[in-house]
Design a protein that fits this description.
It contains seven helices and no strands. The protein is mainly α. It has one domain. Keywords: Membrane, Transmembrane, Transmembrane helix. This is DUF973 family protein.
Length: 205
């Protein structure tokens, strides 16, 4: 009986070691929570202070043309804050676990995420140049969701589910352009917060 317990323990240890080497497990739940908060704040500023109306998809009105650079700056600020927080908290978590944040697995994760993100980024610039502002928020959700779905192969399985939900929200936003900003706030804000809380309580406590 004791030998069987030893075998089970050895198998569990080997499985854990293989998982640690094949998957990037230093993602912090708090990073998801903070990214969600940043996104909700950004959506609030865009809607209340910049009066962003995603229902306009054919051209950029004169007043929107003035606000557009501010909206882009706001989006960049939210992105930088989210990425910076994720890197900082992931580094702290990896250091606590005695791991390196930059390794073969994290490189594979980054490469697989970068393809849809770069393609989506190029498409977003094309849409902005054509004045199709209302399509920007839904397409960011779709391509971000594709990136997360790819990332699910190299980190927590829950990331893949989050990616699918982001894609669905993006498609809904494309069908109902007037609700594009709302879908964006739900996808990047609410879902990130829920995901972050789940990851924190399941894997980090």
């Amino acid at each position: 009986m004791k030998k069987e317990k030893d075998y089970v323990g050895d198998i569990a240890a080997i499985r854990s070691m293989m998982e640690r080497t094949s998957k990037f497990l230093s993602l912090s739940g708090w990073a998801g929570i903070m990214a969600g908060i940043y996104a909700l704040m950004g959506a609030y500023v865009a809607y209340v202070y910049f009066a962003f109306d995603p229902d306009e998809v054919t051209q950029v009105p004169s007043d929107e043309g003035i606000v557009l650079p501010k909206l882009i700056a706001l989006a960049v600020a939210v992105l930088v804050l989210a990425i910076g927080t994720a890197i900082f908290l992931s580094y702290k978590k990896a250091d606590k676990r005695g791991e390196r944040i930059w390794n073969t697995t994290s490189r594979r994760l980054l490469i697989n995420m970068s393809v849809p993100l770069v393609a989506g980024g190029i498409l977003i610039f094309v849409l902005i140049s054509k004045g199709l502002i209302g399509l920007v928020a839904p397409f960011t959700l779709v391509f971000y969701g594709l990136a997360l779905y790819n990332a699910g192969n190299f980190t927590y399985a829950e990331v893949r589910m989050l990616g699918l939900m982001e894609i669905v929200l993006g498609l809904v936003g494309l069908c109902f352009i007037g609700y594009g900003l709302l879908c964006w706030a739900i996808g990047f804000g609410v879902l990130h917060i829920i995901y972050g809380i789940y990851i924190h309580y399941r894997y980090e406590r």
